[in-house]
Amino acid sequence: MKYSWRNVPRYIRYVLAQTVCLFLLMVLFRLIFYFFFIKTTITDPAIITKAWYLGLKFDLRLTLILIVPIGALAVIFRDRFFTRPVFRKISFTYFFIVYLLLTLVYILDLGHYDYLGLRLDPSIMRFLATGERMTNAQMVWQSYPVIRGTLAILVFMYLVYRLQRLLFNRFAQQPGRQLRNWPFTAYVVSMVLLIAAGIYGNVAYFPLRWSQAMFAKDNGVSSLALNPVLYFVSNLSVQSDTYDIAKTKQYYPYIAKYLGVDSTNAEQLNFVRTVPGVDKPRLNVILVMLESTGAAVTSMYNNPMQATPNMQRLAKNGVLFEDFFVPSISTARTVYSVTTGLPDIARTKTASRHPKMVDQRVIMDQFKGYQKYYMLGGNTNWANIRAVFTNNVDSIQIFEEGYYKSPKADVWGVSDYDLITEASAIFKKANDNKQPFVAFLQLADNHPPYTTTAGAGDFKKLTEKDIDMKLFKQSGFVSIDQFNALRYEDYNVGHLISMAEKDGYLDNTIFMMFGDHNCILNPYSFTPLPEYDMATGGVRVTCFMYSPKHLAPQRISEPGSLLDIYPTVAKMVGMPFKNYTMGTDLFDSTRTEKYAFITYMRNQQGYYAIYGKRYLYEINNNGKSTALYDLQGDPLKDVQLQQPDTARYMDNLTRGFYESTRYLMFNNKKN
Questions:
Q1: Which of 37, 150, 293, 327 is least surrounded by Cβ atoms within 10 Å, i.e. has the fewest?
Q2: How far is it, in rounded angstroms, from Cα 555 to Cα 495?
């Protein structure tokens, strides 16, 4: 065996050795992902083995693609590859850059998956948007071991440098071997065929494709089967955001009937609904965005850890929306969606970062006679959120970092406790002056780096010794820090209501509290539906209203959405308005059907869907694959063949939601 190996020309053996080293690097990161990051409910060894098999084939494909340049040089120059110094420099430089970039991308991918539960894709470029780089860099600095990580990378790259020297010198010191044309041709052809076969990756008519990794309908298994670099590159071909006027008109009749527009007109694409006002005292409205607060983590939805007693108390004495959704997972998308009443379904950037999508006719602007506030502990240049408000809401007052007396707690600005304390003083002043107000209060501390303060001195973090770890593992929480951050948010919700009572505006204010999306969780199964497996758990959030003098305790089971918030509160306070949005009144008892438009990722593929009390209908982002699920039967079984009429109707309505939203994002501009 040793003799036959030595007979192979050294430049080909060098290429093979480098191939093995690169492949082992990818296997190392795959092992790290499997043992420390993967989130899946699948335990079947056959499925996991298949995911590993596919993943290793993707790794081999990337390895062979990267080895081609050096392989080409080696076979062209043969033994001169080791005798000319220029090739030594080329080899060292090339492999150093390749190892460095691979290491950085894999680490970034692991962080992306840990944060969002998804493999790396081009949407990460949104974090490099102008004016936001510093904020995002601070978040990374405060949330992750940047210094230790950098040192580890430096040490690793030094070891790579030593390995490259060792490999090159070892082969350079071996005797060269002159081959005749036919043996040389045989070696080259064999190497080319093996590399081509490895890149092709399949013993089939079609080459290995990333869609093969989606065989298990489980995001964790699919992630294990993918190579993050190849997956990222495959998503670079995303088309630019636009809309299709023909499809908008095609599906307009379905959505117009559902919304109940004033005057149906498929040519002018009219979406307006006029809501008359009611003459009554104007109540204040405070919208409270609860960062990363999905339904599954809160006490109201049976989480075993019961981390939110204040929210539970308010929901019990107010109105709890049992099935409430955000259109997509992203804080910026949530702020845009609740304000504009349109799902943020921008494909590459969030809509707030898209100049053509920012100009909108919004209901908040129609609160005549109201003071309008947007309050954030940090800076509103984040995600270009400032433009969503200043461009669309006349005379809005923005309170952000630089205004507050309290010091910054972390990258997201002042702590939630301090934000609420200072915001309450503003609310008190307006209320004392008999000036009604509508406010968007955005909390942020339930987010990495999970900064918590002592509040009034009575907030205490819990440790593993203080809790039942068996229940903790069932709850879905991924860390004690995450659990404590939610507890801290709940603490601050209680603080807000206490301040409202103390400062005298509780009795004439409607509080609407909602999560912006769910946090990343480990698999859980305590919810009535298997929402973790359905992938709807990420967009199902907590939502409740509280106004002890004006709202009787109530639980609403019909689906609701962020899009419905402003139409609901505007009608509650008697404000006349025109609704240009996709939202409807959450309390409208005359509606015969109610759906929430949502988007989600399952099995590393994107879907948009409408979620009703009985059915969920989804359409793959490719626009072709569809499914109908009976939520009162088997919610994981596609029943569209058994119920073709229901599927046909919901397909038209789902596409109507999608195409109408795409159209309105560009064509709902103020006159």
A1: 150
A2: 24
